[in-house]
Q: What sequence folds into this?
């Protein structure tokens, strides 16, 4: 079983749509949780951290459910520039980051 | 934010040659650096973690004699792929953080732009 699992997609959505990604992780001792964004052939970039209380950054909302070991990302009012691969990432003991394989989002006009 | 550079950005080499990739933190001191590898359509996989001035810690399944890591200063780490073969072709990415492994609070890792290695 993969440590961090994501639906690979692709999710093809029109501009303005709302789209949600989910992720599950296997290590209950994981310390912190993040969503990263990776554009084609580029390095990953931190999109936002994820907290149990839920957090929002503009059009992006992230949620963590520790009991279910489940993380989500909601993108509202999708823009063409949101097209990318979204990586679910957990931090384990010793600052080791474990990456999911990513969910591909394609926003079309 | 902090900037991490990698050099070269891409390299093509013949099978059997060694390739050195440099990772530099440009505006902060990187006590800890991480090396990742990403195959097409797969996740980034951590290869090794290094603290400045000490030996790297390799993840299970990563050959330390094949992937030599040197973290000689607080701003530079190098990864040398020795006797590269076509199966080593991948996207190699480094990251750096300002903080040691003993610092369990999270300091963001800053990623380099990656090096695309193609071994013919």
A:
């Amino acid at each position: 079983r993969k440590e961090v699992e994501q639906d690979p997609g692709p999710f093809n959505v029109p501009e303005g749509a709302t789209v949600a990604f989910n992720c599950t992780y296997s290590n209950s001792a994981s310390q912190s949780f993040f969503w990263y964004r990776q554009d084609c052939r580029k390095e990953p970039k931190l999109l936002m951290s994820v907290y149990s209380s839920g957090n929002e950054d503009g059009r992006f909302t992230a949620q963590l459910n520790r009991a279910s070991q489940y993380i989500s990302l909601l993108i509202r009012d999708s823009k063409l520039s949101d097209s990318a691969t979204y990586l679910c990432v957990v931090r384990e003991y010793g600052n080791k980051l474990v990456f999911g394989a990513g969910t591909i989002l394609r926003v079309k006009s | 934010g902090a900037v991490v550079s990698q050099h070269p950005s891409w390299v093509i080499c013949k099978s059997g040659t060694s390739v050195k990739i440099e990772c530099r933190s440009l505006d902060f001191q990187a006590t800890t650096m991480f090396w990742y590898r990403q195959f097409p359509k797969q996740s980034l996989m951590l290869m090794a973690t290094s603290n400045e001035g000490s030996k790297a810690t390799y993840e299970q399944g990563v050959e330390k004699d094949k992937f030599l890591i040197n973290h000689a200063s607080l701003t530079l780490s190098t990864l040398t792929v020795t006797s590269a073969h076509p199966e080593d072709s991948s996207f190699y990415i480094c990251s750096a953080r300002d903080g040691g492994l003993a610092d369990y609070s999270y300091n963001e890792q800053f990623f380099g732009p990656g090096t695309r290695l193609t071994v013919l």
